[in-house]
Design goal:
The chain is 47% helix and 0% strand. By secondary structure, the chain is mainly alpha-helical. This is BED-type domain-containing protein.
Length: 278
């Protein structure tokens, strides 16, 4: 056991998983739950206090590898900006980075609680929506203010069109929603009285800014009207959706052809692939 107090139970995430990077030991824990014990049952990895144990976990048991590190960093950045009152200047790189885009899409799928076997379907729907808007837009330079405005507009359009159906407020219409990591549990529990039987984001609720965040925004933007679109873009849901479409745009580009089977389907048909019951 990680501590010596009887009747204490401590749950550790799987070793070498993404969650190990976010794991925090409790004050009573002094023994590494990942390291093996000696043959006589003595603790092989006992530390003087939980702080030293935490340092050991970070140094020895956090997943290694460039892509995993980038995924951890992407989760850390998203969690940071989702905190009430956090600020971030959203920027877009001028050169496409498909590998980083794939990592960010995975992180956004995690944050949005999209079931593993429905992620390709959601991405296909979002790609169709994105391409239909691209056809009507004025060309812009990557990294420009027009790029920023385009991502905002597509996030608003997609959320208003498909958000309520995909992230429904009805528990029996959410079979395609499932938690893969526990990093975003607190993000989607703002209205606890509305979610006793629901896990993950609810579009109609989470497109609203937290009260404290809204008050801070009004102070920082004195004299500026807080419209529904502005509130959506600064809400927890809007923040994730903006990141999602920024990454998707970086991945699919402006001129590449859709997969033949996807191109033959309407948005309504692609939506059904996401939300259909098993």
């Amino acid at each position: 056991m990680p501590c010596d107090i009887k009747n204490h139970s401590h749950e550790w995430p799987p070793s070498d998983s993404i969650m190990a990077a976010f794991f925090r030991t409790e004050k009573c824990e002094t023994v590494c739950g990942y390291c093996p014990t000696t043959c006589d049952g003595r603790d092989l990895r006992r530390y003087t206090n939980s702080k030293n144990l935490q340092r050991h976990v970070r140094e020895q048991h956090v997943p290694d590898g460039a892509d995993l590190r980038k995924e951890i960093e992407a989760h850390q950045e998203l969690l940071r900006v989702l905190k009430p009152g956090a600020t971030r200047q959203q920027t877009f790189i001028s050169v496409r980075d498909e590998k980083q885009a794939q990592i960010k899409l995975k992180v956004c799928h995690d944050a949005l609680f999209v079931r593993m076997d429905r992620r390709d379907s959601l991405q296909a729907l979002a790609t169709r929506h994105l391409r239909d808007v691209i056809k009507e837009k004025t060309p812009f330079a990557r990294g420009s203010s027009a790029h920023h405005d385009f991502i905002n507009s597509i996030a608003i359009s997609f959320t208003n069109t498909h958000g309520p159906a995909i992230w429904s407020n009805s528990a029996d219409k959410r079979s395609h929603i499932a938690k893969s990591v526990s990093l975003y549990d607190e993000t989607w529990t703002k209205s606890k009285n509305m979610r006793s039987d629901i896990v993950g984001p609810i579009c109609t609720t989470d497109i609203c800014m937290l009260g404290s965040h809204k008050r801070l925004w009004k102070i920082q933007h004195k004299g500026v009207e807080l419209t529904n679109d502005v509130e959506l873009l600064n809400s927890p849901f809007g923040i994730v959706i903006k990141d999602y479409f920024a990454a998707l745009f970086d991945l699919v580009g402006e001129n590449e052809e859709e997969h033949e089977l996807t191109a033959q389907k309407s948005e309504a048909e692609l939506l059904l692939e996401v939300i259909k019951d098993d």
